[in-house]
Amino acid sequence: MKRGVRALGIAESFREDRSTLAGVVTRASRVVDGFAFTTCTVGGTDATDAICALFDDLGREDVRYVLVSGIAPAWFNVVDLHRVADHTDRPVLSVTYEESDGLESALREQFDGDALDRRLATYRDQPDRQRVGVADDTVFVRAVGLDDGAAAAVVDGFTPEGGRPEPLRVARLAARGADDLRRTD
């Protein structure tokens, strides 16, 4: 991957009823050259809209990929990766860090009625997770707009060490810092 290729990494930090989403533009060379922040509702259904708005706020036509940490930030606020890809006109990859049987049983434990049906419909519409080896670790990737091989290459190209792609690692740190600042205001 060329060193100047840029990805937008989006991660979150939450406490109480609001989650801080941080978007960080990072080059494959590990140079960070843009930040944006927004919020979504913990336990809500607005994460997809928040991610789309964050992308728009950045106004960065040079971003080639959108990487999202997880599929259900802010306590089951399920992200519709297809909608994000359609809105941004970019490939979208959701990266998770642990093997699991999925979220269906957890969703059923926490929600019922329309709230459950809406989350299940969105969750079931997402692509399956693919195991991807990066450095000495394994991550699990859902990709919209890229085949599995290309998605693995993107994750690998943005992961210089450890098991977390650099755009997501930095976004996670930024979200935590912004969340801490928001809590003191």
Tell me about this structure.
By secondary structure, the protein is of the alpha/beta class. 39% of the residues lie in helices and 30% in strands. It has seven helices and seven strands. It has helices at residues 47-58, 73-76, 81-88, 104-110, 113-124, 148-157, 166-184; strands at residues 6-15, 18-27, 32-41, 63-69, 92-96, 130-134, 137-144. Strands 3-2-1-4-5-7-6 form a seven-stranded mixed beta sheet, with helices on both faces. The model has no long low-confidence stretch (mean pLDDT 95).
Arithmetic mean of pLDDT: 95
Q: What is the string of helix and strand elements?
A: EEEHEHHEHHEEHH
- Flag low-confidence runs: none
Strand order of the largest sheet: 3-2-1-4-5-7-6
How would the global form be characterised?
globular
Radius of gyration, taken over Cα atoms and rounded to an integer in Å: 15 Å
- How far apart, in Å, are the first and last alpha carbons? 41 Å
Major beta sheet, specifics?
7 strands, mixed
Number of helices, counting only DSSP H or I runs of 4 residues or more: 7
